[in-house]
Design brief:
The protein has eleven helices and 13 strands. The chain is of the alpha/beta class. β4, α3 and β5 form a beta-alpha-beta unit. The structure holds N-carbamoyl-L-aspartate and zinc ion (ZN).
Amino acid sequence: MADKLTFTRPDDWHLHLRDGNAMRSVLPDTARRFARAIIMPNLKPPIVTTEQAAAYRARILSALPAGLAGRFEPLMTLYLTDATPPEEIARAKESGFVQAVKLYPAGATTHSDAGVTDIARCGAALAQMEKLDLPLLVHGEVVDPAVDVFDREKVFIDRVLIPLQQRFPGLRIVFEHITTREAVEFVQSASGRIAATITPHHLMLNRNALFTGGLRPHHYCLPVLKREVHRQALLKAATSGHARFFSGTDSAPHPVSAKESACGCAGIYSAHAAIELYAEVFEQVGRLDRLEAFASFHGPDFYGLPRNSEQISLIRESWQIPAQIEFGEDVLIPLGAGGQVCWKLVGN
Ligand code: NCD
Ligand code: ZN
């Protein structure tokens, strides 16, 4: 059993950093571990233009503490709306720092009210993305209230993803934070232009974790945790070596008061231990040898970006996850709060 793992520095292909002091609190957790991260645009108001993405990127870079400055690259995204003009897609592509455009079905999740009400309205923007080869990232859940919450991803595949792929066969799509066996099977059987990210929490937990001894708001995220058979399918996909599954934490910090509420919001914070938790789950299925490909190779290969050249090391040493973490003027409760992780990051 290896006691030290040294591998190519990983990237996080799906991250919520927020803004201002809240961002300042959480950014070092990601920048210590990952070389790059795809930054979600669901601020309030959302990042819908290249100009806004440039300003947000500058705020991120200036929020990096001295020791991490120059070591972390935020990969920016635009938030697709019903009204995104094809010219904005062209500006995004030209910028060199916008790597993708994010589709949130309106109302699907946190800060998605400005999202797309009907994908048919986005034809011109999507055609431009296909032409310029700018990937589309999808929050893959339908918002139809008649569809059971646990089926929303599966139904999205049939109602939205398959028609989308038929209409724009050249469009590169990342099916974000997949949670079901159906999504795994869809990606495996789809063309090489569709990939998926998988979060640490969907690899670690099934939906029982929402109700262990009572209601557990800190295990609530979207898409919601699913049955064990789905977790098993995700675990198999992530550790299979298949090149179109890769890391994307969906680390989504919220103040404790917003989570522990009569209407608690969706989002799990995992940036404080993301690569360590991935290592733990890969080890549980005897597949530590495939961690590097999942976390460091498949993502850049799909996005057409260079792989990182630096390395990181984890040592086998248990440490305790703090019960809470500072979050701007507030605090947040991290994934695994108060528990132990068996891999520890070396250095900073
Ligand atoms: C995300 C957030 O809080 O911004 N929440 C979540 O549960 N994942 C939004 C999202 O990615 O759906
Ligand atoms: Zn997200």
